[in-house]
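Apologies for my clumsy wording, but could you write out the amino acids of a protein and the tokens describing how it folds?
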Amino acid sequence: GRPLPTCKRQRIIALAASGARSSDISRSLKVSNGCVSKILGRYYRTGAVGPKAVGGSKPRMATPAVVARIARLKLEQPGLFAWEIRRQLHAEGICADSGIPSVSSINRVLRTLPSDLRLAAEPRPPGPRVSPPAAPPVPQPPAVPGTQQPPQGSTPGRRLPLSPRHGNRSRNRTVFSRQQAEALEKEFQRGQYPDTATRDRLAAATQLPDSTIRVWFSNRRAKWRRESKQQLEAGGAGDSPG
């Protein structure tokens, strides 16, 4: 980032005057081609060999008075954007046409404002809401075997929503008595796919609807397949070498 010494700059100009190309000068003096072109272009345009003055070439637009006015505008109207603040500064005549800070400069000023001033300018969220006291729990009637009961703690007659993959459908779990479960399990041991006559006989014996019996057998088959797979995996792991 430092400027080239004057002796090397003069060497670049001398080589260019002798007819050397910029790429050859760059390779010979181990200087970038862009640097050679910039030095030569400035020499041909102004005749200057030395570097420009470092720093202070551009006047500062965000003076203390401008920064104070930007902070006041943001405090009075927190929703103002940087381009609106810039237009307001021009309308008030605080800055000349050539001295108005850019939008990025105004955003930089807003970011560096003191924390207390920034908090005062930001809109405050509404206060916390006080929730009403919870209603006492409603006692639930005892469960009747073979009927559908809502989960504990829920309002009677209200269905709990399922996960999004099930859409808007909802269901309740059926509670089976011990006699119903034994009858269904006994029939499952005879056959996993009961026909219509078998389901009618089970419906009469258990007082369950045909749809519930079908769902129970479907779930039981899935459980049986899962248990069989676990037993096979356990057996395979036991036969494998240590």
Observations:
- Confidence is low (pLDDT under 50) at residues 153-160.
